[in-house]
Amino acid sequence: MRDQANPSAATKSARKSTTNDKNLDDLFEHALKDIFYAEKKILKALPKMIKAAQDPDLQEGLESHRMETEGHVSKLEEIFALLGKPPKAVKCEAIEGILSESEEVLQEFGKSKACDAAIIFSGQAVEHYEITRYGSMHAWAISLGMDEAADLLESILNEEKAADEKLSELAESRINFAAEEEDEAAGDVEEAA
Q1: Can you give the CATH number for the domain in which 94 is found?
Q2: CA contacts within 13 A on the Cβ side of 105
Q3: 37 pLDDT band (50/70/90 cuts)?
Q4: CA-to-CA distance for 188 and 8, rounded, in angstroms?
């Protein structure tokens, strides 16, 4: 009776009930929209990183990952189709923050050999974010019996892990050393002055 007398209380009660009725299907769909947004933002950010990179292998790796990212967007669109939903993005504050920091780091270190180390630093922040998202979503798809979606997510997850490993390999094999050598050379010049 009270809810009929106070329509706003009935609306609040219905809204609360809807929120409490959310389940793993709903969370999966939210995560899908979130990562769809993130991949599209990453796709827009990669050309700046590619252009700024000085190491040819880093440029090649970033370009390769840009093409993989286009494929990730397509695979996510396939998952939306499997769900019978149109592809839709929901703003992802996490990727906004990571990419904003990436841009700041690139501005600060973009004119030196440390630029490549900074690009790897930023790139791995993106990769680690994606790995956590795709790992969770893959596990959820398995739990929900979404075999095709699970296969697509596992494929993307493996590519993200490979990209992260390639960045580590480049950093540890020469890029970090090149950035350090430049710092030492600058220090030698300062000492001579």
Answers
A1: 1.20.1260.10
A2: 19
A3: very high
A4: 72
Task: Say if residues 49 and 121 touch (Cβ distance below 8 Å).
Answer: no
pLDDT in tens, 133-190: 999 999 999 999 999 999 999 999 999 999 999 999 999 999 998 888 755 545 444 4
Number of residues that this document lists for the chain? 193
Distances (CA, A) of 112 to 136, 183, 187: 37, 9, 14
Q: Would you say residue 116 lies in a domain?
A: yes
Model confidence, pTM: 0.82
Contact between 109 and 56 under an 8 Å Cβ cutoff? The reply is: no
In a domain, 17, yes or no: no
Transcribe 150-192 into DSSP letters: HHHHHHHHHHHHHHHHHHHHHIIIIIHHHHHHHHHHHHHHHHH
